[in-house]
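Hi,

I'm pasting everything inline rather than attaching a file, because the server keeps stripping attachments. The sequence lines come first, and each chain or strand is labelled.
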Amino acid sequence: MLRSEHVMARIFRGNLIPHRLPPEDGRAVEVAETLCELYAVHVGRERSSLEEEIVRAEEELGPRLDPRRGFRIVRALAKLLEERAEWVSPTTADPYTIRTRIFELASSLPELPAAEPGLLDTASRDDILSQVARETGLENPASLMYADRQSAQLLGEFYKPAPQELIGRYNVAQTQGVLYSARDLVVDLDGRADARLVFHYVKLLGLIYRLQTTETGYRLYLDGPLSIFGGTRKYGLRLAKFLPGLLLTEGWELSADVIWKGRETRLEMDSETCGLLSHYAGPKEAGEEEEVREAFQRAWERAKETGGWRLETGSYILPLPELKTALVPDFMLEHTETGERVYLEILGFWSERHLIERVSLLREAAKRGYRVLVAASEKLGTSPDSLSEAAQGPAVVFKGRLNPNAVLEKLDAVQDSSRATAQ
Amino acid sequence: MIELFYESGTLVASGDRPPEPFVWDKRTRQWRAPASAYRQSVLALRESDTPHEDHAARFEKLSLESRISMEPRPYQREALAAWRRNGLRGVVVLPTGAGKTAVAVNAMERLGRSTLVVVPTLALLKQWYSVLSDAFGGSATIGLLGGGYHEITPLTVTTYDSAYIHAERYGNLFALVVYDEVHHLPAEKYAVIPQMLISPYTLGLTATPERPDGGHALLPELVGKVIYRRSAEDLAGSYLAPYELVRIPVELTAHERFEYAQADAVYRDFLRKHQLRMRSPEDWQRFILVASTSHSGGREALLAARRRREIQNLAMRKGVTLENLLKKHWDDRCIVFTKSVEEVYALSQRFLIPGITYETPARERKEILDRFREGRYRAIIASDVLNEGVDVPDAGVAIILAGSASHREYVQRLGRILRPRDGKRAVLYELVTTATGEEFTSRRRREVFA
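And the predicted assembly:
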């Protein structure tokens, strides 16, 4: 993330265009490479000297890269590299103890310690330092007096990126930067978007959403708790942190109203053309769960008889606004004649905490009248009855793969029970 | 029945329809109000005898007894009385050095409820930590939020920046909020802080509530109106000590003068050739830009400019003059102010006296100032951290080494040694290198007294 003073953008016909470095631009790559190298060769050396070199790089490389903005570009790139650096203390001694002892000794003298030993019998600076050296066993206590300062730290480790990677990171960071001053964010999701991932970040960042259905999917309005009392830019930082989360998936468009240098502007982007890559790793689930999901989908497609039920694979969002999140089931099953809808949620092999959270979402969805069928692997160690009770809905426990027939059986049961309640 | 909850900087109500200013939040299907509506809402519910349960407030009662026996000065007592009359809300305006902090400590002691103190700088964060530890350290632990600290206790000090980010997590814990240098609050960014706090009681402190952007008009809504105001003139003579200003010109050594003249010539020549002015930091950036892209003489001009600055800052004789002053005032509690943090550390290592900068950890800072106050340390060196309302009592001598040319800063620095001390005349030395750019800075700084 960049500091606001490094964020740059221009306005074109009311549209806000964050600054970009073209990854194929030779000069930009060269500057990025030089900076990466600067950090890399600095391992084991002091922070203060690295900072001096960065200032020099700013003055030398900056204007050649871009006459007006070069300074800030170099500074911003360095800031992003800083995130990949680890700093360590240069000494095992405690500088605080050393300096405090030195100050106490000096202050106890009747006169300011003399700079150099003289003819008079007054204690000199060297006398005090050698006394502390004797007491502590350190060779040069004066040099360690402030070894705990940040500027005295040594670069311990640096995870050097490729220059193109740094430039990519820069481009995302500039876009994040203009979002700092956004009041809200509007995100359109179509069928390709991984809505579950999107809500993972909505929840994680404490954002509040409003949901609308559109012709192609959903529209999300994102802001924060205080936003209804007049727009605030307080949540801009969170919206900025949300962006790399969104970049992990496809099938989205976003827009934000941003006050830029006193002017009302609009930031617009979509997954097709933004050309930005996320640096987030994404939530850890997936894996085995994904396999179960795909295997089930294949088995369903091969199945001859599906009792009039059709499997839909797009993202379906069941909003749970009071919980500030939504349930995004794996599949939706629609009955071709009755139009009846049942959602299918496959539980992965998660931690207990995660599982409890997900089951509580299922329960809340059931309360709101959504019919959700839960499928869980027997590895989870739960019985269909207890699962069914916890989730307040029908449950299937499967071994290895989830079989379409087992699901269809339960679907009939769901239908029967709904008929029973209808009558 | 209405139940009130605190949620991320807002109040949420469930049950019956709550009073104004709650609004229906369609996004989450709840009644919601800014946290700042707490006082008004609870009073309305009580007055109308509406049954309600308050799950929002998590205030704590504290038995605070200040360990420092401070007999409040008459005007401090008047300020407190005015604050009580106004329902424990409002802004107190007192000049620098008149003991605004003491007013707040007194208010906290009388109220005996969990309190959040919000300050503009890390230096003030550490200063308040130190004052509150002295006063209430026996009966409470002081918390810090900001500058790398994240420790919340019923008596917590934080910065405006940290409050802006974190208030929504802790906004229901404090019954009283003290805003130090409250003229910072009406900035667009910070004005959202009070919205996130349910604290029914507020106290704002400042010497200068007026803001050039007119933002002070918002103060009544954010903290309450100005309830007490005294100017420096009102209090002069009786409470603020007189001082003496001594300006010492420091000449460069022959070698330095030669080097300086050379560097200066190269630098000025370049400015002339490229028709550059040098009046503001932006001009400096422009100069670097032009110099670093110029093919003829740019690099030399850059080096000359740097060398020129170095000589200005590190003039030998300045060091020697400082040494003489420190010798002379070794028994008078001396504070040295410098322009740069690096200079503090260099001088601290050279003269073996403690240095204080914004980097100094809160506990060590307190220890150094305590020892200075007790006389265990004879002199200290500080960078800009001792500005704006930071309290250094009982210093007899201040020495300024090349401060920057800001009026406000200068006056506030003077405020530091204007502390009353019986019969003590404070001396302020200003060391200025002659025949360099610093002379101009010094002249500008003194215009305030003209």
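Chain A is about 40% helix and 20% strand.

If the labels don't parse on your end, tell me and I'll reformat.
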